[in-house]
Specification:
Order of helices and strands: EEEHEEEHHHEHEHEEEHEEHEH
CATH superfamily of the largest domain: P-loop containing nucleotide triphosphate hydrolases
Bound molecules: adenosine-5'-triphosphate, magnesium ion
Number of strands: 14
Structural class: alpha/beta
Distance between the termini: 38 Å
Shape: globular
Oligomer: single chain
Largest sheet: 6 strands, mixed
Radius of gyration: 24 Å
CATH architecture of the largest domain: 3-Layer(aba) Sandwich
CATH topology of the largest domain: Rossmann fold
CATH class of the largest domain: Alpha Beta
């Protein structure tokens, strides 16, 4: 029996209207958003630009109020304030004073969040180590790369050891190494038992680290669930890449099996049902074709995401 983990974040039927200016018609940007995030998971809140991710996060942070509906964190309505010390937040475009060092800025935030003078220095060192910035702790932030700055932002969000961490686009603008570093930091948060909600449109990162996701398009949730549930085809179809396949044999397998076939220059890629893999390989190998690779096809999150966006456009 699987025991459902406690709900840490709950967003229920949240509607948000903005008035662009006095007398102008209001614009609805969230149309009844509902989702929940469970204890100890990394939750990906995924959607294209302008979908409503940051607006939802601002409501959770208590920075703006929902027009309708409600949201709670750790069982407290987000309009209350006492639970706030349990949450950390990395905003979408964090700004840092360029003439301060990472150690100074973290020390400053530690003071603000009430870390005692005796604990502060150790806490700052610990965080610098966690985000792998120990070597640059005393360099001014203006000398930092974007990836390093983003890690300062994450460290700042963690200064008071929050139970729940919100990250708005933590990997945006980072190169593959910077993204990997942030992913590792996020994974270390889960290992510590924290709950993480991250907004992003970088699906590869979501596939790599998130336990569950919600896809939001034009202010409405289109899908919500565990990452595995977005990939219903896993293992059921297989991609085979072949070289030196004669046109006659290609025709033959096309006739005998239910498969898709694409030319890849000199090579041919075949997507075939898993049950037919053995027979297809036997046939092509006997006919002298070379097998380059055989891989199970994953119905990737990208396909689900693009379908959701298209459905959203026509909705
Ligand atoms: N203060 C505001 N006044 C009016 N409209 C707003 C306001 N803030 C956001 N919007 C609109 O709400 C919609 C959702 O914006 P939001 O910033 O939540 O999107 P997002 O999913 O975070 O996008 P991105 O991936 O670009 O960060 C957009 O159409 C935006 O123009
Ligand atoms: Mg945003």
């Amino acid at each position: 029996m699987t025991v459902e983990k406690a709900e840490i974040i709950r967003v229920q039927n949240v509607v948000k209207d903005f008035r662009p200016g006095f007398g102008l018609v209001r614009k609805r940007v969230l149309h009844g958003v509902t989702f929940e995030v469970h204890d100890g998971e990394i939750f990906g809140f995924v959607g294209p630009n302008g979908a409503g991710k940051t607006t939802t996060l601002k409501i959770l942070m208590g920075l703006i109020r929902p027009t309708e509906g409600s949201a709670s964190i750790l069982g407290c309505d987000v309009e209350e304030s006492e639970f706030r010390r349990q949450i950390g937040f990395l905003p979408e475009n964090p700004y840092f004073y360029p003439f301060l060092t990472a150690r100074e800025i973290l020390d400053f935030h530690a003071r603000l969040s009430g870390v005692s003078a005796s604990d502060r220095s150790a806490r700052v060192d610990e965080l610098l180590g966690q985000v792998h910035l120990g070597h640059a702790a005393d360099a001014r932030l203006r000398t930092y790369s974007k990836g390093m700055l983003q890690r300062v932002g994450v460290a700042q969000a963690l200064i008071h050891d929050p139970k729940v961490v919100f990250l708005d686009e933590p990997m945006s603008g980072l190169d593959p190494i910077g993204r990997k570093e942030i992913r590792d930091v996020i994974l270390s948060l889960r290992a510590e038992g924290k709950t993480v909600l991250m907004n992003t449109h970088l699906l590869h990162d979501v596939e790599m680290i998130c336990d569950r996701v919600a896809i939001i398009v034009k202010g409405a949730i289109r899908h919500q669930g565990r990452i595995e549930d977005f990939m219903p085809d896993t293992g059921r179809r297989t991609d085979i890449v072949l070289a030196q396949l004669s046109p006659e044999i290609a025709d033959q397998i096309h006739e005998r099996f239910d498969l898709e076939m694409h030319g890849l220059g000199e090579r041919i890629e075949i997507r075939v049902a898993e049950k037919d893999v053995h027979n297809v390989l036997g046939l092509v190998m006997t006919a002298g074709a070379q097998v380059v690779s055989v891989m199970p096809h994953r119905n990737s999150l990208e396909e689900v995401f693009l379908d959701a966006v298209r459905a959203g456009e026509t909705a």
